Amino acid sequence: MFSLELDEIKNWMSENGEKPFRAAQVFEWLYIKRVTSFEDMTNLSKPLRDNLTESFEMTTLKTLIQQQSSDGTIKFLFELHDGYSIETVLMRHEYGNSVCVTTQVGCRIGCTFCASTLGGLKRNLEAGEIVAQVLKVQQALDETEERVSSVVIMGIGEPFDNYESMMSFLRTINNEKGLNIGARHITVSTSGIIPKIYKFADEKTQINFAISLHAANTELRSRLMPINRAYKLPDLMDAVKYYIDKTGRRVSFEYGLFGGVNDSVEHAEELADLVKDVKCHINLIPVNYVPERDYVRTPKEKIFEFEKALKKRGVNVTIRREQGHDIDAACGQLRAKERKEETR
């Protein structure tokens, strides 16, 4: 049921001889009252509830593991209806509660530093399975009368590889009759699937947009991110400029720092050259260690040197605050550890 957008439920109501306003009532039950059964939708007639029960299923996620960090970060490992598992993370900030959602079971992109891609791609998630992640976290927050205030699509998988489901998810959580999370409180990240960047630009949303960059030259980026062999860095930058021209919004570049690989002052200067004249922000990420990968974290003093070199060149840059360092923090790491049959 969570895969259906409000207009789709309205159409279903009309086709089944019901008034379209019943769709808004269903949305309220799902996303504001957060019921888990059609039977609980007490302002709907019994025949309508029965018809809904026969026609749709409630997407359910089973919580396999719930890890809590000393900083309040909570990582969930959820099991899907077919036995596959996904990760979702709740991060607590001064400005509110943010949820990082997953869009695929596994990932085909093959970034050489990432745990998410271990075992490759199993399948795409349905829109409702992405929505259900936010709802599960919101239900946990309901116990303390808190709410999800922002969402980032940076969990397992490449969101633009599951574009239609991702967009349906975005429209549902943004809907004022749904979870009503403002567009500017939602961030989508991609590794650089260029055709979908152009398509996303043409959507003209107010949703924040981020690119996983991690290197400022083609050779190094191809080594870190094989997708760069298909979608070259110069073409990626052209797509980014198109997005900025089309939307008037800035882009965030995610730059993970890997010790001795991409973290020198020279790399910083190369990055500054790449993004000059681009309306952007650089988010430096001290990487989490992943046992199956060979990369190590850049020492703190070198991170500050890298940041200083960018600021000296006039680049807008911040260092991402670490969260969940005392749990399986790296994306895909909990799934890889607990569900080895999925990540072989």
TrEMBL record:
Annotated S-adenosyl-L-methionine binding sites: G157, E158, S189, S212, L213, H214, N288
Record: active site: E87, C331
Molecular functions (GO terms): 4 iron, 4 sulfur cluster binding; metal ion binding; rRNA (adenine(2503)-C2-)-methyltransferase activity; rRNA binding; tRNA (adenine(37)-C2)-methyltransferase activity; tRNA binding
Keyword Lyase: no
Domain (Radical SAM core) ranges: 93-326
Cofactor(s) required, per the database record: [4Fe-4S] cluster
Cofactor: how bound: Binds 1 [4Fe-4S] cluster. The cluster is coordinated with 3 cysteines and an exchangeable S-adenosyl-L-methionine.
Gene3D superfamilies to which the protein is assigned, alphabetical: 1.10.150.530, Aldolase class I (3.20.20.70)
GO annotation, cellular component aspect: cytoplasm
Enzyme class: transferase
Reactions it catalyzes: adenosine(37) in tRNA + 2 reduced [2Fe-2S]-[ferredoxin] + 2 S-adenosyl-L-methionine = 2-methyladenosine(37) in tRNA + 5'-deoxyadenosine + L-methionine + 2 oxidized [2Fe-2S]-[ferredoxin] + S-adenosyl-L-homocysteine; adenosine(2503) in 23S rRNA + 2 reduced [2Fe-2S]-[ferredoxin] + 2 S-adenosyl-L-methionine = 2-methyladenosine(2503) in 23S rRNA + 5'-deoxyadenosine + L-methionine + 2 oxidized [2Fe-2S]-[ferredoxin] + S-adenosyl-L-homocysteine
Localization terms from the record: Cytoplasm
Keyword Amino-acid biosynthesis: no
Keywords: 4Fe-4S, Cytoplasm, Disulfide bond, Iron, Iron-sulfur, Metal-binding, Methyltransferase, rRNA processing, S-adenosyl-L-methionine, Transferase, tRNA processing
EC assignment: 2.1.1.192
Binding site for [4Fe-4S] cluster: C107, C111, C114
Protein's GO biological process: rRNA base methylation; tRNA methylation
Function: Specifically methylates position 2 of adenine 2503 in 23S rRNA and position 2 of adenine 37 in tRNAs.
Similarity annotation: Belongs to the radical SAM superfamily. RlmN family.
HAMAP family: RNA_methyltr_RlmN
Other known facts: Reaction proceeds by a ping-pong mechanism involving intermediate methylation of a conserved cysteine residue.
Entry protein name: Probable dual-specificity RNA methyltransferase RlmN
Protein's organism: Bacillus coahuilensis p1.1.43
